[in-house]
Amino acid sequence: MTPEPLPTRTAAGPAPDWAQRPTFIETQFPVAKLSAEAYKERSAGASQTLTGLGKWWGRKPLVLVRAVLLGLLLPTTDDPKKDMEIFLKLMTMDDAGLWRRKDKNIPGKALLAELSNMPPSVRRRFAEQDKAGNWTLKRLSREEREELQRLVFARLPYAEKLRYCRRPEQIEGPAPDAWNEINAHLGTHAHSLPELVQELGARRFGHRPRVGDAFCGGGSVPFEAARLGCDVYASDLNPVAALLTWAALHIVGGGEDVAEQVRRAQEEVFRAVDEQITAWGIEHNEQGWRADAYLYCTEARCPECGWLVPLAPNWVIAEKYHVVAELVPDEAHRRFEIEIHEGVSEARMKAAKAAGTVKNSRLHCPHCGVDTPMDVVRRNLRMWENDDLVPRPDDVFQERLYCIRWVETWVDEQGREQTRRHYRAPTPADLAREAKVLALLRERFHEWQAKGYIPSRPIAPGDKTDEPIRTRGWTYWHHLFTPRQLLVHGLFLATAFRNHKFGPEASVGILLSVGYAANWNSRLSQWIPNIARSGGIGSIAQSFYNQALNTFYNYGVRPTVPLGGSLCRNWSGYSILTEKVVFPSDASNQTVECSFWITDPPYADAINYHELSEFFLAWYEKHLPRLFPDWYADSKRALAIRGDDPVAFRQSMVQAYRNLTEHMPDDGMQVVMFTHQDAAVWADLSMILWAAGLRVTAAWTIATETDTAMREGNYVQGTVLLVCRKRTDQAPLFLYEVAPLMEQEVRRQLDTMAALDNASEPHFGDADYQLAAYAAALRVLTAQPIEDIDPAREIRRVRGPDEENPVETLIRQAVKIACDHLVPHGLDATRWKRLDPMERFYLKALEVESHGEYRNGVYQELARGFGAVDYTQFLADSKANQTRVKTASEFGRQGLRSDGFGNTLLRQVLFAVYLAVKEDDPRAGFNYLKTELSNYWEVRERLLMLLDYLAGLRQVSHMTHWRKDAEAAHMVATLVRNDHL
Questions:
Q1: Please, what's the largest Cα pairwise distance for the chain?
Q2: Which pTM does this prediction carry?
């Protein structure tokens, strides 16, 4: 399965200077627009092209991969603005491309809102006023409607336009007429993206480019590279990642015919399973209703009173229909009956929300009222054995079915099929069906485990896998599934694979669909009753709603019909015709040469892929050797690159990237995707890349996560793209020579970005300018050896908790240079440099906020750059995606005239503004400044600069919290300006 070596470059191949030219991605990149595109793709959720194949953590957006590949292939010219225009045309991110992608009409309300900002003559063409004076759209012809759509669409900000557009991957690429301009600029003859890739690759390498990804994960890089017309080689140490990537290339990338074959195979198996389940009679009740969801809870005995207590954080089942569970004491058996009530009052809903028996990891007993830590409750927890499918009678935690949601189906008088949901407590007949499920599973259990239809693998201890062992005593992966889940999932695989009648694509599709279903149907699948997340009818969450194996006290189980969407996947088909090879392999051992390596390596244990993926591998391991005889079926934990041992981690990364560098031509390139904003981590990375024989030539930051994905915690939202080439300069620098070179490079980088930026549609955000300092530092630090720094020694060195290596010091210095260089708009550069670091941090933070930036990491990085150690004193809010600094009124008297910021001129200005607002009189602020500042006349011009800057916040529409303070600053500034000796 190893591909042939790359063809030798032909004599008529590239122009002599081609390989020496910087590529587009090394000189500029439209990061703001790409961030908006990545956000749109991420926001598509399950409808993203590859996410439907199965769960994987950290898949990069396809639009980002496409942009990186084109950026690597496109040469630069003497006209950088034209280079950007052509790149945007290829990405269909230019005006014509966006209009071509537009597939939704802008609604009438939005059209009218935008018309109100247009000249009256234009407005009257399309709208008219009614008797009440309200504007309404006229009756328009088709041509007029399209003209209006085009007019309004052209005026929208880029991110707003995307609301009405398909994603770039969903169309064929630039329109036919765009290729004339593209070819004229590039000197090519292409009429499609694959043709262009073929032509540019032949010009540069003498053949079609091969793209490699040695940490392929969910397959975004190889899939998009192959779809663009590159040959691809994909590998990953983890066989689950390799399987997902293989499916991306051969099922989704196999064309619509292959995708349809897989769909038909899944549907055929599902029908057979549904018939068997129906014949067993384990999902229908006596009234003919079919089960739609089963709700289970755990039970534990209260250590104080001995009562058996059902455990749940609350007892709301469905908000929309006001369905609750209520606990009724059973004195005779020292336990609780659970009654289900529909359509209850608001008071009973409120009581059900408050009646949870597990709060803050403590068991709250409704009988005796005593709270007991759950660690005490589970003190005598038994470790389950392989044959355990349900708790034993004397186990600490029992399991109880307490509610079933049924669907009643009937035909109305018009012959239409109707359905109605019912929420019911289980009857004795329902419990008999539960017992039958367990009996059916026990009959097949050992055979199915031996054949891999259900998991048989033990759970290996680990940072994440310890959780189910510690909290429930579950020691095998099948313990994470109820008997009903094991029976349905196992029956699906047994039906599909008993006779091995399906080909490789259908077999892999069936296997992945069971993995997909397992994620949405396990004992880790939380029941969600609220309207915001389930529509209020109640839904079952995926097991991996975050990057952990969380055990819940109550959870939901999907019966067969609701599992249909998981077991019968509807994958799109794209025809990929280039060479594609996928193999599970350690990055440090692979032997394939690639023109470009594009990798997103695991870093600092951000995600424990090797542990979490074993949840799926438990279902796949017996089938992988049959489907792929050359593959292994082990997660290879011992070989995984992990951050718990910093020295071993750095050494493993060096081995991996040195190997990739050795398997790349001299004019090849690498892009390393990176998601950290810590100078120490960047220092490590610079040493790793240097030791691997690479030099950084550019770095860009793309926002790759949605707000929804980041709703908890101050997570990094951007992906840094480090563009690297082989290092060829071996002449050493001395450490004292590095600092001035780095300062020069930082300033050059920032000035270049500012010159390329577009005020109305900016390519770069504040975070991009911050990260540019890191990139500039890495370019200098990795370009050639530094006499006073031995990368190999630094990589092996164990550092103390507060010990910085010399590279980290240099990188922090680069950030400081950037912060000093980037003077906020409206401030005088000379006076800016005379401000205290805390003043500069506060003013720059206001500018960042005015740009709509609320990520905590951006403000944290600013504080580092300015040396604002205690920057949290400035923050009004530090929640993720809500971070901002205090207004003058929010500061009030806090810290006034205290050491540090309290004694600065800016602090006096903020207090003056606060007084003006408080007294509703600007003279109160003016009098304070004139009487309290002994050097008032000396600092008058600086006062005006600061007051004018704060007053300018009146113009920022989204900073409404500054409105009163900014107006007060404007009036105080007027008084100061008119004050004369």
A1: 100
A2: 0.85
Asked if 905 and 946 touch (Cβ cutoff 8 Å), the reply is yes
Residue type, 975: L
Residue 772 identity: A
Question: For the chain, how many structural domains are there in total?
Answer: 3
- DSSP E strand boundaries for 322-389: 323-330, 335-341, 358-359, 362-364, 371-373
Same domain, 536 and 468: yes
Same-domain pairing of 811 and 835: no
Q: Are residues 558 and 649 in the same domain?
A: no
Say if residue 737 is in the same domain as residue 859. Answer: no
So what's the pLDDT on residue 709? 34
CA 831 to chain centre: 41
Tell me the C-alpha to C-alpha distance, in Å, between residue 149 and each of 111, 140, 152: 8, 12, 5
Q: How far apart, in whole angstroms, are the C-alpha atoms of residue 263 and residue 569? A: 7
Q: Which neighbouring-strand residues pair with 721? A: 673, 700
- Helix orientation angle between 963-977 and 905-918, rounded to the nearest 10 degrees: 110
Tens of pLDDT, residue by residue over 11-62, are: 344 444 555 679 999 998 988 889 889 989 988 877 888 999 999 987 899 9
Give CA–CA dist 686/692, Å, rounded: 10
Closest CA relative to residue 876, chosen from 962, 767, 958? 962
Instruction: For 57-117, give the DSSP string.
Output: TTPPPHHHHHHHHHHHHPBP-S-HHHHHHHHHHHTT-SHHHHHHHB-SPPPHHHHHHHHTT
pLDDT for the residue numbered 16: 44
What is the rounded CA–CA span in Å between residue 606 and residue 309?
Answer: 37
What 3-state class would DSSP assign to 926?
A: helix
Cβ distance 142 to 105 under 8 Å? no
| pLDDT higher than 80, residue 63 | yes
Residue 4 backbone class (left: φ over 0; alpha: ψ -120 to 50; beta: rest): beta
Residue 97 lies in a domain: no
Q: Please give the residue range of the domain that contains residue 948.
A: 829-977
**471 shares a domain with 342:** yes
Q: Are 657 and 620 within 8 A, CB to CB?
A: no
Residue (of 572, 596, 583) closest to 231 by Cα position? 596
pLDDT value of residue 154: 93
Q: Give me the residues paired with residue 726 across strands.
A: 694
Question: Do residue 794 and residue 841 come from a single domain?
Answer: no
pLDDT surpassing 60 at residue 267? yes
Sign of the torsion formed by the C-alpha atoms of 114, 117, 122 and 126: positive
| Amino acid code (one letter) for 290 | R
- Work out the average pLDDT over 904-912: 93
Among 457, 817, 725, which residue's Cα sits nearest to residue 615?
457
Question: 789, 821, 853: which is the final residue of a domain?
Answer: 821
What CA–CA distance (Å, rounded) separates 933 from 929?
A: 6
Contact 679, 783 (CB under 8 A): no
CB atoms within 10 A of CB 916: 28
Let me know whether 427 and 298 are in one domain.
Answer: yes
Q: Is residue 43 part of a domain?
A: no
The strand pair at 718-726 and 669-674 is best described as antiparallel
Q: Tokens 């189910």 label which residue?
A: 468
Q: Is residue 427 part of a domain?
A: yes
| Within a domain: 32 | no
Cα angle: 665, vertex 670, 671; to 5 degrees: 165
What tens digit of pLDDT does each residue of 183-242 get?
999 999 999 999 999 999 999 999 999 999 999 999 999 999 999 999 999 999 999 999
C-beta of residue 496 within 8 angstroms of C-beta of residue 310: no
Instruction: Identify the three-state secondary structure at position 427.
Output: coil
Q: Residues 152, 116: contact at Cβ < 8 Å? A: no
d(CA 770, CA 772): 5
- For residue 89, give the amino acid letter: K
Question: For the chain, what's the residue count?
Answer: 981
For 602, the token pair is: 């695991």
